[in-house]
Write a structure and sequence with these properties.
Layout (H helix, E strand, L loop, with lengths): L1 H6 L1 H5 L3 H16 L7 H16 L5 E6 L15 E2 L5 E10 L1 H5 L6 E8 L10 E7 L14 H12 L8 E4 L5 H10 L3 E4 L3 H7 L3 H4 L3 E7 H14 L2 E6 L4 H9 L9 E2 H4 L4 E7 L10 E2 L3 E10 L4 E10 L7
Parallel strand pairs: 1-3, 6-7, 6-8
Antiparallel strand pairs: 1-2, 3-4, 4-11, 5-8, 5-9, 9-10, 11-13, 12-13, 13-14
Helix pairs in contact: 3-4, 8-10
Length: 329
Amino acid sequence: MTDLIVKGQDIIDRILTLELVRVTERAAIASARLRGRGDEKAADQAAVDAMRRELHRLPIDGTVVIGEGERDEAPMLFIGEKLGTGGSAVDIAVDPLEGTTLCAHDMPGSIAVMAMATGGALLHAPDVYMEKIAVGPGYPQGVVDLDKSIEENVAALAKAKGVSSKEISVLLLDRPRHKPILEACREIGCPVRLIPDGDVAGVIFTTRPNETGIDLYVGIGGAPEGVLAAGALRCVGGQMQGRLILDTDEKIARAAQMGVKDPKRKYDLTELAAGDVIVSLTGVTDGALVSGVKFDEDAIRTETLIYRSTTGTVRRIATEHRQKARGRA
């Protein structure tokens, strides 16, 4: 894989940052038009259609390796779908509208997000759940581990940070499956933030604990979101582990077709997202990472974060899409 990634280095170099920004901007704007209307499917479909349209304009031979479903679930951006006008091979991971419920009810934290990497660099996996644990940069390698209890991980992170376990803030998706973790955190005495949706942003929160107040992300969420979040962590530092939840013969068989030989394998950050990775995310509704889409009388305003692993850069791009030119903002 290393030779493949090195050979493909110039592929990503030729893809202008603004082209990827435009992809998530258009998806965010399309779904933002349906904010607060209570129709999750319509908002998601609007984002999918806009993202697909923009990706098809890029000079790439792109393959969706992490998407919203598999071929029989089209018109979502499905795993294996080919995108672009032709060119060098790249992997694409997408979540056209992360936080569909958040968008439908005009709640904070909904984003449009995608990642692109050299061909073969992103984990190929079916659209299943994934166990995840993540922390931000600045800690010894292996400070947390997916196979350790929440008590052990909080204690290890607290020791590395030089604080009490009660000062480690944990973020969880608000799901019944996380009740044991929540109860253990209550016993420890550490603060817990529960979010209704949006675990790509949740993982990224750990990279900016002074701003977000989050030290540790843990729990079960979607595999697509896991790969996207890993791509962002690659760009700014941090640690993450993930394990696919392949709990049926059918899921194991599908994963095997995609090259997953060990259904119980624990993936580290570079196995989830290797090589040169670019991640772009645009706010749909206002959130802790980015502001949502604003519709003014004469312009549409968006805010985007664009991450690049090779350079370790994070750019914040505020864009005005003038109404007269919005056909290709």
